[in-house]
From TrEMBL:
Residue ranges the record marks as coiled coil: none
PANTHER family, alphabetized: MULTIFUNCTIONAL CCA PROTEIN
Organism domain of life: Bacteria
Keywords on record: ATP-binding, Magnesium, Metal-binding, Nucleotide-binding, Nucleotidyltransferase, RNA repair, RNA-binding, Transferase, tRNA processing
CDD domains: NT_ClassII-CCAase
Family statement drawn from the similarity comment of this UniProt entry: Belongs to the tRNA nucleotidyltransferase/poly(A) polymerase family.
Domain Poly A polymerase head: start-end pairs: 13-131
Protein name: Multifunctional CCA protein
GO-annotated molecular function: ATP binding; CCA tRNA nucleotidyltransferase activity; metal ion binding; RNA binding
Cited InterPro entries: CCA_bact, NT_sf, PolA_pol_head_dom, PolyA_RNA-bd, tRNA_CCA-adding_enzyme
Amino acid sequence: MVADRYLAGLEVYRVGGAVRDALLGWPVTDVDWVVVGATPEAMQERGFKPVGVDFPVFLHPDTHEEFALARTERKSGHGYTGFEVHASPAVTLEQDLERRDLTINAMARGADGSLVDPFNGQADLAARVLRHVSPAFVEDPLRVLRVARFLARYAGHGFVIADETRALMRQLVDSGELAHLVAERVWAETEKALGESWPEHYFTALDDCGALAELMPQLAHEGPSLAETLARLQRLPEDIDHLDVVAWRWARLVEHLGAPARRQLAESLRLPRRVSRLADQVAETRGLMHAPGALDGQRTMTWLERIDAWRQGEVVASLIDLVSLEDAELAEELALAWRLATQILPQRLVEEGFKGKALGDELRRRRRRAIDDALGRAPRHAR
């Protein structure tokens, strides 16, 4: 730690993910700090700005990094918020680390570089095991989702969940505590998991302990096998922005669900509109791909209207690319139909004198004719 006049005389440790990732040899992006033996008043006297709502956290006067006072937690109610927090100069570093979820997240680095590892997190890192710190794991239902999310991050490196931790995850599910998780927190963890390298492991871990049936029953009970559903998560259009990966993976996850089930799930998780909208568009595209018979103008026009192609044209190319993953010939037909349809511009019809409802009707008629022409030229086939 670089000499810092604001921290002089304080017992400060780097903790959590920064220590874990450094030991793994991974880039460290977020750093958490814990201060042992200090009071809120002492921190403010040094110029730190208090920002914590539920427990004492302070912003460094210059770097604006967050420094939390060492604390303990005691279960006092249901859910992940049902805790009483105790922070005082008497709380030790080991007590602070003991309240954490996994041993690999319960390590600290001192100012002298020494590793503080009271729960053998370094050994579990080497053994590639995700293991709970203490029996208090079962007090926080959010930890079921967090462990599953860490598996989505590390499974490809050989990590597994310890058998005893899996047992505690099932115990948490059986206790009914998951019912006290608010939708926003469930989606926040799911969103993070969908952005990890191996998101399918998040859902298999939740399914294994029974949490998937509690939180996302539509995925647990409807459609093909979960394994078949999860196989789609890595099959995405090539041209999407990396920021859209989460939305596309979610869309692929739920594309087989009927509209009522898909919307019910979106509402229960309070999904962002952009995520649920893309899921609807991908589901419509799946319906087009799997419909029997040869592609025709009416089906193509209906598909374009249902995905709101005329107002959200930027998504059409990605949806056609998605089709190409299963049916290259169909994708070629759709690409030609879309290209010719977009050449029919409203402004030209306005110049011809069309307006109002007549303009909309004529625009749709000519676009449909362009699509029919495209399919007439394309090598059509039945599916």
